[in-house]
Amino acid sequence: MKMEVKLACGLALVLAVFTCLANASTKNVCPYVDNLVSSEHLRFFQDKCYSFHVWATDYRRANNHCINLGGFLVTVKDSAVNDFLVDVMERIYEVDTAPHGTWIGLNDMIDEGEFVWSDGTPMNYSNFKLGQGNNRGFFSNLAPSKRVEDCVAIKATDGKWYDYKCEKSYGIFNVEKPYICEHRL
Ligand SMILES: [Ca+2]
After folding, report:
1. CA of 44 to the centre of ligand 1 (A)
2. How far is the CA of 86 from the centre of ligand 1 (A)?
3. What's the pLDDT score for residue 31?
4. Are the C-beta atoms of residues 116 and 107 closer than 8 Å to each other?
5. pLDDT at 98
């Protein structure tokens, strides 16, 4: 073998090792999350991992589960993430299992009308359905205090956001929803 060929081979090997090390340090692998239906429910996108949970519960329980898994309810900071979530939801959620949306980590529990994400950041990108986020529920005959809607869900059918009551109370349905956790690597 000629010296030039040996050098070229050696250089290629060094580059391969460096490429391998660089990929390993990128850590584009989702953490292990128990109780998922299948690996399809754990997806990597950009620099984050997302776990899609099909079991329906209220907002606080959903967020607490995400925190217990080392993450929090998903933040949707731009349309690329919104599109990604809808794409996965269309594949893994039957329409009948999430007709009233899937919890995302957005709420205005502390200050009405001031929506904040579960990581504490303010809402700079919004994708509410026209007229949603208005704190008013379907049951407009209820007393104002019972109409409060402070937690937000996304629907796979249109990719839009809707505000709902965070927890179940008398006369209120559909507050138990599937949810998506975000895991920063
Ligand atoms: Ca509200």
Report:
1. 31
2. 23
3. 79
4. yes
5. 65
88 C-alpha to center of ligand 1: Å?
A: 27
Over residues 97-114, the pLDDT tens digits come to 567 899 999 999 999 999
- Give 15 Cα–ligand 1 centroid separation in angstroms: 55
DSSP string, 35-97: T-SSGGGEEEETTEEEEEEEEEE-HHHHHHHHHHTTSEEPP--SHHHHHHHHHHHHHHS-GGG
Q: How far apart are CA 157 and CA 36, in angstroms?
A: 22
pTM: 0.79
Ligand 1 centroid to residue 34 C-alpha, Å: 32
Q: For the chain, what's the residue count?
A: 185
Spatial separation of the C-alpha atoms in residues 140 and 32, rounded to whole Å: 43
- Interval 111-137: pLDDT, tens: 999 999 999 999 999 999 999 998 876
